[in-house]
Amino acid sequence: MEEIARGAGEITLKYFQSRELEVLTKGDESPVTRADRESEEYLRARIRQHFPDDVILGEEYGSQGSNPDRRWILDPLDGTKSFIHGIPIYGVLIALEEAGRITHGVVHLPALHETVSAATGAGCFWNGERSSVSQKKSLAESLLCTTSPSRLEDLIGRSKYDTITRSFGLYRGWGDCWGHILVATGRAEAMLDARMAIWDSAPLGVIIEEAGGEYFDFNGNKTIDGGHLASCAIGIASEVKEMLLA
Q1: Where are the domain boundaries for CATH 3.40.190.80 in the chain?
Q2: Which segments of the chain belong to CATH 3.30.540.10?
Q3: How far is it, in rounded angstroms, from Cα 188 to Cα 232?
Q4: What is the CATH number assigned to the segment(s) 2-130?
Q5: CB atoms < 10 A from the CB of 111, how many?
Q6: For residue 174, what are the CA distances in angstroms to 58, 130, 192, 210, 235?
Q7: Is the Cβ–Cβ distance between 121 and 134 less than 8 Å?
Q8: Cα–Cα distance for residue pair 65/48, rounded to 1 Å
Q9: Closest to 156 in 3D by CA, of 194, 189, 191, 190
Q10: Strand-pair category, 114-119 with 123-126
Q11: Number of continuous H segments (helices) and E segments (strands) in the chain
Q12: What are the tens digits of pLDDT across the range 132-178?
């Protein structure tokens, strides 16, 4: 999974910071580029070489395959808007779901030369070295990230938004998969993502959990399929959940 994630990342880098990058708009008004589509085509082809019957679900080309017990979930370029603006905080996301449970996850950040991967019971690794969440227990000493401050505020309301964001010592909009990876590698303590499809979130739960952290949706449920996701260091997770549920 790491190998093909890096291969897809190399495809995206051919188009990164190119002034000739063509940007199209999909039916849901989100942007898509040739890099997104070529990356997913490559990932699908490589998976098919080894697992021809497995189901593959990707953002750009939907679901294909016949094996109901194994499903690959792909986001070939998470953070397309950052990518379009030449910002390096975008990633290639791959998750493997077996018998309805995500067991393996990889996030590769091509422009930052970072790869974070995890498997159930095997730990979380950052560029080949074991990774863990921050051990901080004070919100005042912690860093909170989000993809879109305005979207977060719209979802949880102004009062709750102010309570949460002002409780942290530092608040930054380092978003998409990058924010969750910052939590998994101990560089941030919390990431709140207000709008997520399954391909945006699929590898993140196993990565955060194997790094020693906690993940849950904004209703406090341990799921990556709630449409929103909080990733937290273990020492502040309960406080963040309480504020979201208040």
Answers
A1: 139-245
A2: 2-130
A3: 8
A4: 3.30.540.10
A5: 18
A6: 24, 23, 10, 22, 21
A7: no
A8: 9
A9: 194
A10: antiparallel
A11: 9, 15
A12: 999 999 999 999 999 999 999 999 999 999 999 999 999 999 999 99
- Name the helix (H) or strand (E) containing 119: strand 114-119
* Largest Cα span, the chain: 51
117 near 56, Cβ under 8 Å?
no
Residue 49 CB neighbours (<10 A):
9
54-58 and 214-216 strand pairing: unpaired
Eight-class DSSP state of 141 = G
Count Cβ atoms below 10 Å from residue 244 Cβ, excluding itself.
Answer: 19
Distance CA 174, CA 8 (A): 22
For residue 5, which amino acid is it? A
**Cα–Cα dist 24/73, whole Å:** 23
Is-above-0.85 flag for pTM? yes
pLDDT tens string 213-231 = 999 999 999 999 999 999 9
CB atoms < 10 A from the CB of 24, how many?
11
Question: What angle (nearest 5°) sits at the alpha carbon of residue 12, between those of residues 10 and 17?
Answer: 115
List the structure tokens of 88: 């390096």
Q: Is the pLDDT of residue 27 over 90?
A: no
Is residue 177 within 8 Å of 188, Cβ to Cβ? no
Q: Which H helix or E strand runs over 10?
A: helix 2-13
Q: What is the rounded CA–CA span in Å between residue 173 and residue 150?
A: 10
Token pair for 81: 């808007």
* Domain at 139-245: CATH code: 3.40.190.80
- The H or E element spanning position 56 is strand 54-58
